[in-house]
Amino acid sequence: MAIKVFADGANLEGMLDMHDNGNVQGFTTNPSLMKAGGVTDYRAFAKMVLEHITDVSVSFEVFADDEAGMEAEAREIATWADNVYVKIPALNTKGESTAALVKRLSADGIKVNVTTIFTPKQVDEFVDAVSAETPSILSIFAGRIADTGVDPLPLMAESVKKAAVKPAAEVLWASTREVLNIFQAESVGCQIITVPNALLAKRKNFGKDLLEYSLDTVKGFARDIQALGFHILPEE
């Protein structure tokens, strides 16, 4: 497939395994993943990752909630390696847009990954904010949009068209929920999709014959029935 698959993660061993096996073309992290992965030293963890992963992009997110703090952290993170993208949330906890900050960073040649984009208005302001020359990623949370009962495909397709005016910008389908999303993301022109490890494991089913899949499923149920040892009818 033409679309690049990125993995979300904060487990060094798992990241290196996926990288060495060529399963993904980039990595993203976030504070929640850091917490779940038991990371206690953000800088040390990042430096360890970047010592081993040098040929694909890795996104590290700022922690600050104010613009000045975000900017200081972003400029520091950007110095860690050439393949680093700095993740900047589209807004802070007060609901204030970070577009002005993103514009400054991108204009200064810092590669940004704008995260938590949900609305057409946010797409417009961040397409405008990123530089035409500096590589950037616009991460649109298609899966969470779908969780609200809204079809994300029209927004994703329109976002790809809007972002085309900035040749160095790529649209990323975030919060992937199922394998089908990979095909949907590629069909509307997204350049990148983040895929959880559990879904990456399902790529072996791509193109599988459905009747064969039906039989495999029945056999799986049969093995579980046997393991349970349950009976519906009384034993004679």
Automatic annotation (TrEMBL):
The highest taxon in the source lineage is: Bacteria
Instruction: Give one Pfam family.
Output: TAL_FSA
> Which GO terms of type biological process are on file?
carbohydrate metabolic process
Keyword Transferase on this protein?
yes
Q: Which stretches are transmembrane?
A: none
Which InterPro entries does this UniProt record tie to the protein? Aldolase_TIM (IPR013785), TAL/FSA (IPR001585), Transald_staph-type (IPR011861)
What Enzyme Commission number(s) appear in the record?
A: 2.2.1.2
- Which keywords belong to this entry? Schiff base, Transferase
**One annotated GO molecular function:** transaldolase activity
Q: Read off the PANTHER family from this record.
A: FRUCTOSE-6-PHOSPHATE ALDOLASE 1-RELATED, TRANSALDOLASE
Name it: Transaldolase
